[in-house]
Amino acid sequence: MAKTYIAGYDGSDASRAALRFATLIASTAAGEVLAATVYLKAARSFGKGAADGPVGALDEQSRSGAEQLLAQGAVPDAMRRVIGARSAAEGLHELAEDTHASLLAVGVTHRGTLGRLVPGSVGEHLLHGAPCPVAVVPGDFTEGPVRTVGVAYANSEESAAALRAGEDLARRFGARLIVITVLDPSLSFAAAPGIPYVTGDLLAELEQRLKLDTQQVVDALASELDTDVRFLVGPAGKTLVDACQDDVDLLVTASRGYGPANSVLLGSVSRHLVDHAPCPVVVVPRDAPAEEVPEPAEATA
After folding, report:
1. Cα-flanking dihedrals φ and ψ of residue 99, to 5°?
2. 3-state helix, strand, coil in the chain (%, to 5)
3. DSSP secondary structure string for all residues of 95-132
4. Tens-place pLDDT, residues 238-260
5. How far apart are alpha carbons 20 and 192 in whole angstroms?
6. pLDDT at position 190 over 80
7. C-alpha Rg value of the chain to the nearest Å
8. Domains defined for the chain, CATH in brackets
9. pTM of the full structure
10. pLDDT band of 4, cuts 50, 70, 90
C-alpha cells in the first residue's frame, strides 16, 4: 500500500515549499502526494426559518474557489484534495486521519516577532494534535539533495521514535545520519537546591554518561549507514539550531511526550527548533511506527 504524504496548500510561497518537501520525501518511497486546500464551511443556522439553500450555495462557492486555487498553482489533478472544515487545521487533521498519512507538511507563511509560527496559526494547531509526523518547512526550501539528516536525541522514548524516523530517512536518501545530543546544565539538572546548574566533576560525569548512552544507541543502528555522533553542551534549543547551520539538510526531533498517545505536542526545545532551524524540521509523535523502507535500488529509481 502506497504511503501518503500531505502538504497544506493555500497558494502561498510557503505552501509551495511544503509541497516540494512532501514530493521529495514521497519520491524515496514511491508514495502518494496530496496537495490539500481547506475551505471554511459556512456556519449552519438551526431553528424556525433556517434554510440550507444559502448555506449550501456559500459552501459551493468556497469549494469552487479552493479548486481554482489548486488549478492556478498547476497542481496535477491526481494530487488535488479540497476539504471543507471549520478550520484549515481541522481539515488537514481529518485528511491525515482518513488517509493514514505518513507525513503532513506545512509551510511557514507568517513570521511572528519571536519566531516562525504565529500562535494560533495552522501550523501551530497541527503541531499540537496531528495524528502523524509534522514537517515545518521554511518558505525558501528548494528540492536540493538531502545529504545529511540530523536527529535531536535526548535518551527517551520520544527521542527513540525520532531516531527511528531519522534512520529511515537517512537510508532512503543515502544520506549521512548525525545524532546530536545536547547537555543543558541550566535546564536539565540541578546540583542542589539554590544551585541552578552543575559544574566541575558532576558535569563531567553527566557528560560521560550521556555520551556513553548515545553511542550505545547509535552503535545498534544499521551498519550500512554513515553515522556520526555530536555531543554538545549549552542551551538546548540554540545549541541544536547552531549545530544545523552548516551541514544538516533535514532535522528530526521528538514531541514533548505529554498528552494523548500519538499526538504531536511541542516542548520548549522542539518549538525553538521549529521556529529557528535553517532547514525543514520533522516533529515525530512518540508512538510513530517505523515505515517499511524499499530496497536501495527502488529508492534510487
Report:
1. -95, 0
2. 40, 20, 40
3. HHHHHT-SEEEEE----BTTBSSPTTSHHHHHHTT-SS
4. 999 999 998 999 999 988 765 55
5. 49
6. no
7. 21
8. 1-144 (3.40.50.620), 146-301 (3.40.50.620)
9. 0.83
10. very high
